[in-house]
Amino acid sequence: MTLFQLVKITLDELYKEAVQLYGVKVDDEIKSRFLYLTTSYTQLSSTTRAPIDYKDPAIRFAYVYKYTASHGDYVVQLLAILAQALGGKIFQSDVGRVSCIGGGPGSDVIAVVKYLADSAGKEAVNKLMVYLLDKEQAWADSWSELNMKLSSSTVQLHTAFQQMDVLNPDWTSQRKFLEADVFTLSYFVSEVYALDGSGVVTQFWQRLFKEAKSGAIFLYDDNGSDTFNNYFDYQWKTAGLQLLSQESNVRWYPRSSEQKSELAFYTAKFNAIPKVQSTLSYRILRKP
Ligand SMILES: C[S@@+](CC[C@H](N)C(=O)[O-])C[C@H]1O[C@@H](n2cnc3c(N)ncnc32)[C@H](O)[C@@H]1O
Predict the structure, then answer these.
(1) Which InterPro entries does this chain map to (predicted)?
(2) Ligand 1 pocket, 99 CB below 6 A?
(3) pLDDT tens digit string along 101-130?
(4) Among 39, 141, 176, 232, which residue has the least CB neighbours within 10 Å?
């Protein structure tokens, strides 16, 4: 299955949820949420902005429709770059553990599953444990159907959604996700960058980097902007992580196997197209 096909499954579930809340007004509500998200994402570096609220199913539909497949595809491409940097494979045993910070919308988990499917014969993983850590509990429902569909005959997938707000230092009671081989930070740094005025998010990064195991990999990818790049570079350099690969502010496209036409039904309905290309920055890092 392509990422766009997987996203279509989640969208159908989210649309039903939005219909329950908004009835016949649902399409107009969703259309207005496209605008809400686009406007919010132009203000990410503003320290006076309100945090983006993903609770509303119309917002979650708009997010998944517009961003999940392309963000997932970018992560698949970074995992392939990582595997090459590590000599051919990422995971060292038959059990793989991945923690997706800000991973509620499912972009990161579908990416890891897709990477493993594409790497059959190279990676020995037959059990994949994925922790999805996100402030917004409502995301937990959005992809529960996907969980079953993502398990394949070669890789058994176990996912755990854990509510975690990185602005709340109580997150330290959650420990299991720190055992991950790979941490994904896909379009998450820009989301919390402007909320770090008190240093609470910096504390989160430093604690995360300190408590992850030796050899753990961190994949950062985000909007290509030196504001976010410089902020995140400061965080990982302070923690002494090693840089395996990086690009800054480059034009980035999904692989040609990904066809946004899979979502044609919703494209016609909302007269809006899913994001495809971006200006992207990434860092692939390893804890010594
Ligand atoms: C732009 S989305 C990125 C989602 C996904 N990783 C992707 O690449 O498509 C940002 C995510 O961060 C979550 N988030 C926002 N603030 C957060 C916080 N303070 N703590 C944890 N998660 C947060 C949101 O709920 C949302 O799922």
Answers:
(1) Methyltransf_34 (IPR021463)
(2) no
(3) 999 999 999 999 999 989 988 999 999 999
(4) 39
Query: 136 in ligand 1 pocket by Cβ < 6 Å?
Result: yes
* CA gap 128, 116 in Å, rounded: 10
Ligand 1 atom nearest residue 41's Cα: 1
Tens digit of pLDDT for each residue in 203-215? 999 999 999 999 9
* Ligand 1 atom nearest residue 221's Cα: 8
Residue 165 CA: nearest ligand 1 atom is 20
The pairing of beta strand 242-252 with beta strand 217-223: unpaired
User: Which residues of the chain have a pLDDT value below 50?
Assistant: none
What is the DSSP secondary-structure string of 88-156? Answer: S-S-SSSEEEEEEET-TTSHHHHHHHHHHHHTBTTB---EEEEEEEES-TTHHHHTHHHHHHH--SS-E
Ligand 1: which atom is nearest the Cα of residue 67?
Answer: 9
Query: Domain with 203 in it: what CATH number?
Result: 3.40.50.150
Q: How far apart are the first and last CA of the chain?
A: 36
Ligand 1 neighbourhood includes 78 CB (under 6 angstroms): no
Q: How many domains does the chain have?
A: 1
Q: Identify the domain containing residue 156 by its residue range.
A: 3-286
